[in-house]
Amino acid sequence: MANARFCEPLDTALVEGLARHHPHLVTVEDGAIAAGIRAALAP
What we know:
This protein is mainly α. The N and C termini lie far apart (22 Å). The chain has helices at 12-21, 37-41. It has one domain.
């Protein structure tokens, strides 16, 4: 589990490492989709 609450700028090395070692990444957020972690991770 990685808490991205205070992750600014986005730690891309952490996300890439998690993606290499886990079949799925799940994000849970309470806020606007356009400005959240999903927006930073979306291709």
